Amino acid sequence: METFKKLKQYYWPYKRYFFLSLFSLFFVVLTTVAYPIVMQITVDDIIREENYGLVPVLSLVFIGIMIVKSISTFFHQYMGDYFGISTVFNLRDSLYKKLQSLSFHYYDNAKTGDLMSRLTADVELFRFFLSFGFSELVRITLLVLGSLSVMFYYSVPLALVTMASMPFLIVVVRKFDQRVHPAFRKIRKSFGRLNTRVQENVSGMNTVKSLSREDFEIDRFADKGDNYRQHYLNTATIWSKYFPLMEFIGNICVVSLLGFGGYLVMTGAIDVGVIVAYFTLIWYLVGPLMNFGFVINNFSQSKAAGERLLEILESEDEIKNASEPVNPQGVKGHVTFNDVTLTYVENDDQALKNISFDAPPGKTIGLIGATGSGKTSITQLITRFYEPEQGELLLDGRPIEDYSLKEMRKHIGFVLQEPFLFSTSIKDNIAYGNPEASMDDIIDAAKRAQAHDFIMAMPDGYDTLLGERGMGLSGGQKQRISIARAILINPKVLVLDDATSAVDMETEFKIQKALKEVMKGRTTFIIAHRISSLKHSDEILVLEDGAIVERGLHEQLLNNGGPYQRIYDIQYQDKEAILGENKQHA
Ligand SMILES: Nc1ncnc2c1ncn2[C@@H]1O[C@H](COP(=O)(O)OP(=O)(O)OP(=O)(O)O)[C@@H](O)[C@H]1O
Ligand SMILES: [Mg+2]
């Protein structure tokens, strides 16, 4: 019940429909219970008394009852569904909203397929209980109570005898519940894993095919599929044992009714019509009790689904907004790191060690170093994608935690190492961070990013639709669109993470020339492997294993005898070698 209580805010706003549905249900049950009573009257007062004149009256009454039943069934159904569907709409929206606010840390460990199955299948399961399961529970209770009242009204001893085996039914139902709930949790988990496989496989199809790992993938999927099958079969076993057992116990009730009821008729304690009514009434007890298993099953599934939804809804937003966030106004873009240390995974090595630097407004900082040395990590701290373990990060002299996250991030433009494009038009992709931008602004940004020409060469120009993850563009084209996107938000701090790694030297040169102008008045962080990309920086930080091992201007570092000089020598030698080769060819 805890799960349902916690999710109350999502269904309670629609309680009106729920209660209307219950109200209609009341009439449904009332008319259902009237049915055996009509039977009893037919047998005892009409057939046995040979009172055939009453037939038309009784028929009319019966039709009346059935009309009421039909109408109330309609309202009961519709309102119940309305309640469930509206709740799910609300719930799914909130889940999606929550997914937007969760931190990078959460996504480091999250599996897309699993999240997908939570937002689709689990949400549906939860709805099913709200729409159907709960009211079924109420229907069962009302029907059992109604039938019992009628049974006791007709004959107390007969009611008691026919009910003698009910306790067994209840025990079986309880046992069933205890076994089926864990079984369903396993099914849901297994389904999430199955989804994850499909999702990962589809997005990694290039890698799979290029390494000829199709068979491996097929086997791996079969494993997961088999696991899912096993869990389902286990549950099916529980189910299939349950139903015959329930029906058997139900039939024992019928036998008691025949024996004891027959005896009562012979002694004249009850009329034959009562037995006829009892035949129906007994299944009004056994049926719901059997159904009770189904509803419990449904409830268990729903609870398991609800728990999985709550896992998302209740995950901590690790990166919290300040309690009284300051809206950054007139940001200058002064970024300061004071002795900053970062650890991604607890007890793991530090990804950044005692990083300190000062980037005054408008200056350019170059970051260079081997892969995995921590360049990207530094820039991710500026936007608070991750929280440092220790140390202080200032923007315009103020700790970044003081600012409103959203507002602060608006002032920081990021060209990610692996740019992501949506499957919309090129225009919309460029304007993603600034949807109000005019077409002129978009074109201007694209021109500066050296993207305009290739965009215009595409069939629909700026309206060209991209495939999933920007399919249909080369790596360098994606990078340039991503640069245009960053330029368009007109940020005070610009981070270019390997932004030109996938473009040729000539294009890089052009982009750099254009960027030089863009960078004016902005604090820029350039991450690059090529020295040519960052040699004009106001300060170059050379990283090794998460620590700054060298810093200074290009000219200073060049003859420092340190790692920078080594990198330069390698890249320079390459050039020499190529030039040498060219000479030989000539
Ligand atoms: N999300 C993460 N979770 C755990 N560890 C991470 C995460 N991101 C990076 N790391 C680790 O932190 C270290 C620094 O990574 P980072 O991405 O900053 O390197 P980089 O200098 O940008 O490398 P590259 O030039 O390849 O982009 C690496 O050892 C990496 O394995
Ligand atoms: Mg990186």
UniProtKB/TrEMBL annotation:
Q: Which PROSITE patterns match?
A: ABC_TM1F (PS50929), ABC_TRANSPORTER_1 (PS00211), ABC_TRANSPORTER_2 (PS50893)
Which residues are in the ABC transmembrane type-1 domain? Answer: 19-301
Q: Where in the cell is it found?
A: Cell membrane
> Does tRNA processing show up as a keyword for this record?
no
Annotated GO CC locations: plasma membrane
InterPro entries, from UniProt?
AAA+_ATPase, ABC1_TM_dom, ABC1_TM_sf, ABC_transporter-like_ATP-bd, ABC_transporter-like_CS, P-loop_NTPase, Type_1_exporter
SUPFAM superfamilies from the entry? ABC transporter transmembrane region, P-loop containing nucleoside triphosphate hydrolases
**Bilayer-crossing regions:** 17-39, 51-68, 125-145, 151-173, 248-266, 272-296
> What keywords does the record list, in alphabetical order?
ATP-binding, Cell membrane, Membrane, Nucleotide-binding, Transmembrane, Transmembrane helix, Transport
Query: Do you know which SMART domains this protein is assigned to?
Result: AAA
Q: Does the keyword Membrane apply?
A: yes
What's its membrane topology?
Multi-pass membrane protein
Coiled-coil ranges from the UniProt annotation: none
One molecular function GO term is: ATP hydrolysis activity
Question: Which residue range or ranges hold the ABC transporter domain?
Answer: 335-570
Q: Tell me which Gene3D superfamilies the record gives.
A: ABC transporter type 1, transmembrane domain, P-loop containing nucleotide triphosphate hydrolases
Protein name per Swiss-Prot or TrEMBL: ATP-binding cassette, subfamily B/ATP-binding cassette, subfamily B, MsbA
